Amino acid sequence: MEKLARVTKSPEERKQEFLSAAESLFRVKGYERTAVSDIVKQVGVAQGTFYYYFKSKDELADAMIRRMLDEHMGLIESIAEDPELSGQEKIVKVMKEDFVKRGDNLENLDYMHHENNALLHQKMLVESVKAYTPFITGIIEQGIGEGSFHTSHPREVVEFFMVGLFFLYDPGIFAWTVEEVVTKLQAIGEILEKLLGAEKDSLDIWKDLPDMPIIIQKALKAEKASR
């Protein structure tokens, strides 16, 4: 009988298989109800192979979230490193092109809001703050050097702002009405100006937005569904 050829994969390729299988299972079963045995079964390897790459399901979840964020952080990095923009222009651009429109990129993460993914959602919020902070801090420090921002604790201001931003505007946590969402989006610039000691109306995020932000679209959809 002819033997089947054994498929050999590189460690990185195998690791990515585990991450993709886990994400697929978390979408369907939820993080809480997915066991390591479910993951290895979907990948088609022995359970011992899993522990060669990850110490636990918890460590795998952290790696999965970092992979998601790495794919998303390219825009932030490109803005932060643009030599043609001032710190003030960069922070406005980050807010307009990333945060206000972030639902365009992250809408497929709605499964994070399921009750069986509560811990996964918490991890996502924490890792998001940790991923954004170095880039935004660099932008703020540039603005301080240019004289447009005035704060003695740029990193702490960024962490404080990002925690509030991700938590308050998360549709899986707060079910704001369209009117409330619009008001809160309009307030972002004023809040940033006060935190950074910037001139009034210098960080107007709401002004000249080209499209309706996904967060407002979601609020509209939720309002229609509740009628």
UniProtKB/TrEMBL annotation:
One of the record's GO molecular function terms: DNA binding
DNA-binding region of this protein: 35-54
Highest taxon, organism lineage: Bacteria
HTH tetR-type domain mapped to chain residues: 12-72
Keyword Transferase: no
Keywords, comma-separated and alphabetical: DNA-binding
Keyword DNA-binding on entry: yes
Protein name per its UniProtKB record: TetR/AcrR family transcriptional regulator
Organism: Paenibacillus chitinolyticus
Top-level taxonomy: Bacteria, Bacillati, Bacillota, Bacilli, Bacillales
